[in-house]
Design brief:
five-stranded parallel sheet, alpha/beta, FAD/NAD(P)-binding domain, Enolase-like, domain 1, 410 residues, FAD, FAD/NAD-binding_dom
Length: 410
């Protein structure tokens, strides 16, 4: 069997490891535009602030490709998929045949049109190792940095460069920071914590134009800057599948086995949609753990096994300047809120199930809440009043405790 994987991040690695659990003889080829050994993208901010290095950023050991008998074609870009001939073509005109193909192309930064942007010399995105290296090279201790976007990428960038520049201003159209994962109160707590680091925010605002090192904002203010970082969002990298005739909405459409409508072509990771079990909707869940599990599902099925990807939820585990945050699920339903000792907790329930949560500060045993969401555990079968206060296994029945500990299957 000839397996080809386009991509080299979490979904691709999950697929390789799953394939090798089923098939230790088939040929696996990884094709990736970046020339680097697989690495963890969320760590690029820690690389900039000196909390990690290139060696520790690797998502798998140096020997990963040789140990798994993988042929890596790094620094190579796929220009087209031909499902009729079951080949992929590279930009250097090389043609690679496949029996099973996985598209794990991730996402690309969204750059909105802004007047004068083409005249800004030092402008960067913040998604790849090359992005981080280029940004670091541009910074000086006197640099004034303007970051467009107060989401996860923009704020991690701010944290990563905060000790390498003079001042950081973050601008966002939304009325709060991290609007995709935090409620109003949670956002306020995190914003106040970040502001204590000297980072300034301008919310419900956007850039009208750039001119001579100054950003003129929609509210009439002007912000002088030396370096611009654009982190307003990403778009799933779906073009290869779309151009090959595959079905694409916001992301690549797949079934519960991660198979696209193209024969023997699978998709996983940030480029693909999946079923969010907390809302029942198909959507892109651009999260590293979900990408790995989706890739693992695709790899299993590519190699002749059978595995469904049917338990995805939105989830984020992140920290800013020592303040830790974990969120999961959706926030539509009845709310339980507890705020004390500088920590914030929100649990959201609906139809007798835990649907989502926000934890800021105290995040211990968050996995119990996550498990309740993933397993759709009826709350009337556990001591939820106890779990609301303090998540612990003793609040479950004996049989449920064994399930949580992996002793029995559901």
């Amino acid at each position: 069997m000839n397996y080809v994987i386009i991509g080299n991040s979490a979904a691709a690695i999950g697929a390789v490891e799953a394939i090798r659990c089923q098939d230790d003889q088939g040929k696996i080829t990884i094709i990736a535009s970046e020339p680097y050994h697989t690495y963890s993208r969320p760590l690029i901010s820690y690389l900039l602030c000196g909390k990690t290095d290139l060696q520790r950023m690797r998502y798998r050991p140096e020997s990963f490709y040789s140990d798994r008998q993988v042929t890596p074609l790094l620094g190579k870009t796929v220009s087209a998929i031909d499902p009729a001939t079951k080949t992929v073509t590279l930009t250097d005109a090389r043609v690679i045949p496949y029996d099973k193909l996985l598209v794990a192309t991730g996402s690309v930064p969204f750059i909105p049109p802004m007047q004068g942007l083409d005249q800004v010399e030092k402008k960067y995105t913040f998604m790849t190792l090359d992005d981080a290296n280029a940004l670091e090279e541009a910074l000086t201790p006197k640099s004034r940095v303007l970051i467009l976007g107060a989401g996860l990428i923009g704020l991690k960038c701010a944290e990563g460069i905060s000790n390498k520049c003079a001042h950081i201003t973050v601008i966002d159209l939304a009325d709060r920071i991290l609007p995709s994962i935090l409620d109003e109160r949670g956002s306020q707590i995190v914003r106040e914590h970040i502001e204590k680091q000297g980072i300034q925010f301008s919310l419900q605002n956007s850039v009208a134009s750039f001119e001579n090192g100054t950003a003129h904002l929609k509210n009439g203010e002007s912000v002088p800057f030396d370096v611009l970082v654009i982190a307003v969002g990403v778009r799933p990298n779906t073009e290869l599948v779309k151009n090959a005739g595959g079905k694409v909405n916001r992301g690549i459409v797949t079934d519960q086995y991660c198979l696209t409508c193209l024969p023997d072509v699978y998709a996983a990771g940030d480029c693909a949609e999946s079923l969010d079990i907390t809302t029942g909707s198909q959507r892109v869940l651009a999260l590293l753990p979900n990408a790995y599990m989706q890739g693992e599902c695709a790899g299993t099925n590519m190699a002749g096994g059978e595995k469904k990807y049917d338990h995805a939820i939105p989830m984020n585990a992140i920290g800013f300047f020592g303040l830790h945050i974990i969120t999961a699920g959706c926030y539509e339903g009845e709310e339980y809120v507890d705020e004390k000792y500088g920590c914030y907790k929100k649990l959201v329930t609906k139809d007798g199930l835990l649907k989502g949560y926000i934890l800021i500060g105290a995040i211990e045993r968050a996995g119990i809440y996550t498990s309740l969401i993933r397993q759709k555990t009826p709350l009337d079968t556990i001591d939820f009043e106890l779990i609301k206060e303090k998540p612990q296994l003793m609040a479950f029945s004996k049989i449920e405790r064994l399930k949580q500990l992996g002793g029995v299957k559901g």
